[in-house]
Write a sequence for this structure.
């Protein structure tokens, strides 16, 4: 059936109430998105974080008369003189098929592909990771993950131990194992991420080489390579923890860093690591360093 959606601009403080009001006024579904395209990554468990300027969208049956709803919203306490809205007609589609059609195999470096399970594998002789888009844990499409995957593709990983700090979907750990690493340890604060990592490792035939831990469960260990694709804040705050996983002469790869944050992150590690020139994709950076000799 066809639909119509009503989108209003709300402040961070009032976005939740506007969403509730749309539901009370008959919206079948309510979604939130950023008016300025600023990302929010993995908010603390149990918290809902909204953007400074949030677009709140209510989905209605196409036969709904939106004028009384718009009038009610405009007169509510959540808007002053800055009430704005727009409406969009949504045609009837097979939304699951539409969603699936948007995802294609992606190549990283010379030999590594990430392939949705419903797509044909472009190169059966390549290193292929079977990974379906899920709950925003990472499928390689974001520049931060892409930078790390391309770096891994170029490394001699045979026999090495890898730590994937903030493992999410497990994509980096799984890529390392498929590229020859002997052992990978994934660490994440989110139990759902560990479940996703385990399922993805089983799908790719490397579950026997992947260990997964919450931070409070992680063992003491040293790795040849530590991958930390998180955000600049945690990278700085947890510098001692992350650096502690890197063995003597081991390597550290960090991403999730905006170009303006590069120097601050490097400063948190520069006493222990010698960095190569940063790599950049769009506004995102990847840092690679090797532990200095004692």
């Amino acid at each position: 059936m066809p639909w119509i959606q009503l989108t209003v601009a709300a402040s961070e403080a009032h976005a939740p109430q506007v969403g509730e009001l749309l539901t009370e006024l008959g919206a079948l579904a309510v979604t939130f998105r950023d008016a300025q395209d600023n990302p929010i990554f993995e908010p603390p468990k149990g918290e809902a974080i909204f953007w400074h300027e949030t677009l709140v969208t209510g989905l209605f049956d196409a036969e709904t008369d939106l004028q009384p709803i718009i009038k009610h919203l405009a007169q509510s306490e959540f808007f002053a003189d800055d009430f704005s809205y727009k409406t969009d007609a949504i045609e009837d589609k097979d939304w699951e098929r539409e969603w699936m059609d948007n995802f294609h195999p992606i190549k990283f470096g010379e030999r590594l592909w990430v392939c949705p399970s419903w797509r044909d594998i472009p190169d059966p002789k390549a290193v292929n990771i079977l990974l379906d888009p899920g709950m925003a844990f990472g499928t390689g499409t974001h520049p931060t993950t892409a930078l790390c995957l391309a770096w891994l593709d170029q490394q001699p990983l045979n026999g090495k131990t890898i730590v994937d700090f903030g493992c999410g979907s497990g994509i980096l750990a799984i890529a390392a194992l498929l590229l020859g690493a002997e052992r990978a340890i994934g660490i994440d604060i989110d139990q759902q991420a560990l479940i996703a990592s385990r399922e993805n490792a089983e799908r790719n035939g490397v579950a026997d080489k992947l260990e997964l831990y919450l931070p409070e469960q992680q063992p003491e260990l040293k790795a040849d390579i530590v991958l930390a694709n998180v955000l600049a804040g945690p990278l700085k705050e947890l510098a001692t923890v992350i650096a502690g996983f890197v063995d003597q002469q081991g390597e550290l790869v960090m991403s999730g860093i905006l170009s303006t944050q590069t120097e601050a992150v490097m400063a948190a590690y520069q006493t222990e690591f010698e960095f190569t020139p940063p790599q950049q994709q769009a506004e995102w950076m990847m840092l690679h360093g090797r532990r200095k000799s004692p």
Q: What stands out?
A: The first helix runs from residue 15 to 24. Residues 30 and 58 are 5 Å apart (CA to CA).
